[in-house]
């Protein structure tokens, strides 16, 4: 998809990590034993496989997202049907062939992990098929809304991992030696094509100018490191396709028309073959400006000014999506407010680290128009199983719940 080599290797490592996690998880599945109000009765929960799990993955993580779903779905006892993005079929084929070898070596039918490449019509067939008990969809909010409705119309289970208009808040006591590299990585990494990419930087007015100057300087130092993603010196690769370049140009133009100032970049790099654009910094826009509220899958960073923690949180929560968020501060009071009910409304809530680069041990996903789904670690495995509440009468009488007498 154009990802630089270290990030590509890291993505494969993420699949390896989730396999390790899943293997351990396979010996740890547990349900609850619940006290019964009835004499000589016992209640417990049991988790059972769903059956077929459909995975519709996006172009930007053509290996890892499938890995999150596949590893957990398999240890939960399911089979998996994968439809990758139509622009990244080769990665999917390579991954499937590796899995096939492992399954055959262990005398398991390789159809357990099946692959179907194709366009939207294939995805719609999966979404509408009653035999597919769970559909895990990763992609845009617009398409996710359609897929969600199609699956829900047949009362199937749906796991949605959609967009994220993610923000970093920088308070006036922040350690800028952490802020600058974190912002640069989160806004430029994968050429701004991660769902957890930082798209809004909310900076306290006391250090606003200083932060902008430092980020501009950091961006300037990376000018020579835009290029071939297989080159070890490259940190910024291309956008995925020509359509992404057009969306980048449209958003930059909209930002300018809306009163924004291009502090850095804003241009398509036409002096080289490929879909290269310059990382872009935009200032001068209000937090609720439509272009700021829109997720553009490109390296565009909108820098916004705030005068207080409360205002910064409000700006963070303005986004329709609720995937990832981060605050840089040394104030423990603000940190715990940030985690609390009046803090960030995102599924990923960080402190003094970037919005991107999540570990596999925690549940990954977001709220609002991000879809509410959770993948990877913690108890995300529960989405790949069905839960039964089981009641056993091991006595000789038949007491009824709530003390009802039916005599």
Automatic annotation (TrEMBL):
<keyword id="KW-0520">NAD</keyword>
<dbReference type="InterPro" id="IPR015590">
    <property type="entry name" value="Aldehyde_DH_dom"/>
</dbReference>
<protein>
    <recommendedName>
        <fullName>aldehyde dehydrogenase (NAD(+))</fullName>
        <ecNumber>1.2.1.3</ecNumber>
    </recommendedName>
</protein>
<dbReference type="Pfam" id="PF00171">
    <property type="entry name" value="Aldedh"/>
</dbReference>
<dbReference type="InterPro" id="IPR044638">
    <property type="entry name" value="ALDH7A1-like"/>
</dbReference>
<feature type="domain" description="Aldehyde dehydrogenase">
    <location>
        <begin position="1"/>
        <end position="388"/>
    </location>
</feature>
<feature type="active site">
    <location>
        <position position="161"/>
    </location>
</feature>
<dbReference type="InterPro" id="IPR029510">
    <property type="entry name" value="Ald_DH_CS_GLU"/>
</dbReference>
<comment type="similarity">
    <text>Belongs to the aldehyde dehydrogenase family.</text>
</comment>
<comment type="subunit">
    <text>Homotetramer.</text>
</comment>
<keyword id="KW-0560">Oxidoreductase</keyword>
<dbReference type="InterPro" id="IPR016161">
    <property type="entry name" value="Ald_DH/histidinol_DH"/>
</dbReference>
<dbReference type="InterPro" id="IPR016163">
    <property type="entry name" value="Ald_DH_C"/>
</dbReference>
<dbReference type="GO" id="GO:0004029">
    <property type="term" value="F:aldehyde dehydrogenase (NAD+) activity"/>
</dbReference>
<dbReference type="InterPro" id="IPR016162">
    <property type="entry name" value="Ald_DH_N"/>
</dbReference>
